Amino acid sequence: MAFFEGNNMTGGYGKGPDIINSCSVNVERGEIVSILGPNGAGKSTAMKAMLGLLNLKSGSVIINGKNISHLSPQDRVKEGISFVPQNKNVFAGMTVKENLEMGAFLIDGDIKTVIEEIYNLFPVLKEKKDQLVGELSGGQRQQVALGRALMIKPSVLMLDEPTAGVSPIVMDELFDHIVKVKKTNVAILMVEQNAKQALNISDRGYILVTGENRYSGTGKELLNDPRVRSSFLGG
Which residues, including other chains, have CB under 8 Å from residue 147's CB and lie 6 or more apart? Predict the structure, then answer.
């Protein structure tokens, strides 16, 4: 049994059609797992199902051996799950430090030590701690979003398209930061459009097609699979 897993998940939004069908995803602590696939494959839906943002018709979500399938998203956060959405993931009108403080809502007591740990992971945030986040570059804003998500010291970090809209250089930098976070023994589950680059830093990956698991394996296995390369990695 993996540390965090979604097993045979089937469901969609409201009364609409199922977007994921018997989809299974899991991740261990200290591991990066990518969910990949074409647009509309159900990647973000699978992640949101694990966070509790849609009701499953069948299947289960388990963290550290505990079934959390019926918990609200807020209660799943209390179980140690942190989520960085693709859009609107920072408070642009607040400073970097204020954004980090907003992420500390589950922490009792002094948060200075935790903020210092975040600054050590993302040195640029310490340098710009009093600057408004809206004035930062796209890559720096993503670092703020990652730092804020880590303020609750999660065991699971879920990232929805963390490199969307940034340049290739910034993408590489963000992936380097994600690898640094992994080394703190966090389980990282990531939906990403930049499949080749994501697989390069991923321990394992899942490729979804029309809401179902099509391929899975280590990052290296998927990169070297000719079927995956021709269909999803541009040859």
Answer: 99, 100, 103, 118, 121, 122, 125
The pLDDT, as a whole number, for residue 166 is: 86
* Domains of the chain and any CATH numbers: 1-80+196-235 (3.40.50.300)
Q: How far apart are CA 200 and CA 215, in angstroms?
A: 16
Q: How far is the CA of 199 from the CAs of 46, 120, 207, in angstroms?
A: 18, 26, 11
Convert the pLDDT of each residue in 208-223 to its tens digit. 999 999 999 999 999 9
Torsion of CA 79, 84, 85, 90, to 10 degrees: 120
Q: CA 158, CA 132: separation in Å to the nearest integer?
A: 25
Beta-carbon contacts of 39 under 8 Å, excluding residues fewer than 6 positions away, are: none
The candidate with the shortest Cα–Cα distance to 224, out of 184, 196, 185, is 196
Tokens, residue 135: 């004035």
Tell me the whole-structure pTM to 2 decimals: 0.93
What is the rounded CA–CA span in Å between residue 23 and residue 33? 15
Instruction: State the pairing for strand pair 204-209/32-36.
Output: parallel
Interatomic CA distance for residues 112 and 100, integer angstroms: 10
Q: Which amino acid is at 232?
A: F
